[in-house]
Amino acid sequence: MLAILFIFVFVFLRALPVFRESGLGLFTxxxxxxxxxxxxxxxxxxxxxxxxxxxxxxxxxxMLAIITASFIGxxxxxxxxxxxxxxxxxxxxxxxxxxASIPSVIFGLIGVIxxxxxxxxTFVTTELQFQYLDxxxxxxxxxLASVMxxxxxxxxxxxxxxxxxxxxxxxxxxxxGFAMGMTHFRVILKIVLPTGRSxxxxxxxxxxxRGIGEAIAVxxxxxxxxxxxxxxxxxxxxxxxxxxxxxAIMLNSEGAGSVSVSAALFACASILLLIGMxxxxxxxxxxxxxxxxxxxEA
Length: 298
Hints:
MetI-like fold; 15 helices; 298 residues
């Protein structure tokens, strides 16, 4: 507890000049990329920054990735726990846990070598690049690439934890459903998933926490431009570059020798700490509430 308290106090104290100087503008304005360059080259400390583009990029990237990862992960967990023979299920579970332990830089390398060229060859055209040249540069490094790479990283976490939650559902619950003439699919849909929903929801929230804090893999494919994603552009918005908070810290770490840039990076870290703490507390509350609700229904 003391170590955690020290981390929070240290990070927020280092970010305090930015919070004091920027005020609410820190959360309502953009331009972090330009401001970091100006602060690094300025002879006097500059502590006014705008993180709106970074916060929006973080939330949109993580939200899209966690939605995709949830569908794939929960479906995979059901297939492993309910349909796969025991030896196959054991092998698949071990494989999923192995995937969850792969270093994030490996996913980033795969994203650079495979995902980015795939997006560039499939969606990016010269006409499209010229059409949006005044707003952003369209390349394979984009929001879509970040979402795809992050999805691959989050699926093992959702799958492993959801499979554990499904395996804790008592066997007698399933037998009661079969005794009432329900099909296996209906038993899963109406009994297994609702009973294990506390663990499943907790797995999604914990995976979202990991996604928000991921830096290396996302930084390698995101494009590194801190603009607010405009989802009204449709597919084009997915081809625009983004810059999540964690990636911004990593990509600008070389400028941490500047007092102003260092304070800005600590401001990004402060927001990440708050989001991570919120997700952790939410996961515990949801898990506790769902378990209590299942106990009351039983």
